C-alpha cells in the first residue's frame, strides 16, 4: 500500500509544502528532510523547485549532499521538479562553476532555459501521450538525453514546441515544470508508483 511508503521532500529551499501536500493527498507518508540522518529510512526523495545554485550550496552546507547522492546513485527513487531536475542532472549548462549536482540522470539540462522569473508561463505538455497543463517558473529544459533515458514529456506548442521537459531513467524522474502547483497529481502518482515498485523488490 502507498501508506507504507515514506517519501522525503528536501526542505532546504523551494516549494516544499506543496510537494508534501501533493504526496499526502495520495495517502503517502511524506516528511521534510533537512539532515543527513533523515535520509536513511526514506523510500523516495523529492527535490523541489526553487533556486538551484542556492539549493546546491545549502545541500553542501547542511551535510546532505554526499549521503543523498550516495543513496540516489544506489537506487533510491528520486523526483525533481524544475530546480530539482537541475540537481539530478549529470551536466548543467549556464550554472555557476561551484554548483554541484547529484549526477543521477544522464541528461544535459540548460538552467533558466525559458527565461527569467518574468518569463514564467503555463503551457500544455504532451506527457506520456496525454495533455498536461504545466506551470513553468524560470524553468530548465533538457538538451541531451543518454541512451538509458526515457523522454516522457515535451512542450506541445508555441515557440518552445518540442522541447524536452519530462524524463525518467530507472528510479529517477524529473520535470522542468511544477505539478505541485496544480491539482493534477499524475506526476506525483507516477513517482509514488515508482517508489512502491522499488520498495517491493527490496522486501
Automatic annotation (TrEMBL):
Under what name is this protein listed?
Pyridoxal 5'-phosphate synthase subunit PdxT
Q: Which GO terms describe its molecular function?
A: glutaminase activity; pyridoxal 5'-phosphate synthase (glutamine hydrolysing) activity
Q: In what pathway does it function? A: Cofactor biosynthesis; pyridoxal 5'-phosphate biosynthesis
Report which reactions are catalysed by this protein: L-glutamine + H2O = L-glutamate + NH4(+); aldehydo-D-ribose 5-phosphate + D-glyceraldehyde 3-phosphate + L-glutamine = pyridoxal 5'-phosphate + L-glutamate + phosphate + 3 H2O + H(+)
EC no. given is 4.3.3.6, 3.5.1.2
Q: Does the keyword Cytoplasm apply?
A: no
Q: Which UniProt keywords apply?
A: Glutamine amidotransferase, Hydrolase, Lyase, Pyridoxal phosphate
Q: Which domain of life is it from?
A: Bacteria
Looking up PROSITE patterns in the UniProt record yields:
GATASE_COBBQ, GATASE_TYPE_1, PDXT_SNO_1, PDXT_SNO_2
Key word Transcription present: no
Q: Assembly state and interactors?
A: In the presence of PdxS, forms a dodecamer of heterodimers. Only shows activity in the heterodimer.
> Where in the sequence is the active site?
82 (nucleophile), 178 (charge relay system), 180 (charge relay system)
Function comment = Catalyzes the hydrolysis of glutamine to glutamate and ammonia as part of the biosynthesis of pyridoxal 5'-phosphate. The resulting ammonia molecule is channeled to the active site of PdxS.
Give the record's family classification.
Belongs to the glutaminase PdxT/SNO family.
A Gene Ontology biological process term: L-glutamine catabolic process
Species this chain originates from: Virgisporangium aurantiacum
Annotated L-glutamine binding lies at: 50-52, 111, 137-138
